[in-house]
Amino acid sequence: MNQLLLDLNHPHYPEFGRFLGEANAELRHVLHHEAAPFVYVWGPEGCGKGYLLRAWITRAQEYGAQAEYIDARLRSLPAWNVLPDCLAIHQAEHLDADGQARLFTLLNDFRSSGRGRLLVSAEMPPAEMPLREDVRTRLAMSLIYELKPLSDAEKISALAAMVEARQLSVDTEVFHYLLTHWRRDLDSLLDMLAKLEHHAMVHKRRISTALLREVFKQEIAALQESI
Length: 227
Prior knowledge:
Elements: H1 25-32, E1 38-42, H2 49-62, E2 67-71, E3 86-90, H3 97-113, E4 117-122, H4 133-139, E5 143-146, H5 152-165, H6 172-181, H7 186-203, H8 209-226
Parallel strand pairs: 1-4, 1-5, 2-3, 3-4
Helix pairs in contact: 3-4, 5-6
């Protein structure tokens, strides 16, 4: 099976600030300057939380830190022998019982040792999390930010940053066309960009609006077949 080139496991990610925009300026400052050991971000599905966390981990790795990204809907927290310097937990509302117990221990270990940084994301604030009360209480002690949506110009900047990180050349009109004719949440835009790059690679085609229209037709046809 061919793997999409821009998926969450790909090591090439732009600076995490490109996924935040001016409405999230304080959060960007806190993450950039490591102003807090524990940060919690929440917002609806599709707002780009996973991309933000993966980019944050990529930056930490580039600075030499032991850093790990975990999507709690796909895997549980491991039992570390040595705790990572930086940990990002995406979709933390899906942590299972073992994962919640390990997160509780990890939060206590990070706090008592004075080392380690944690970035957690979910679709709701800590008080509404379907987790153990003691875990919710610990998470509520983080700096908490609701992730605000990007403007259209900032979405285009995020798309451009992704292809720049891949060292690709894509005309700006492709981004404008994508934003105008596809679902407008950031995750959907970035996922479609991944499919576009994959299609261009497989068929040895240049990334263009014409190619994007072809991919649109394929996606619509596949959606109709699934109904």
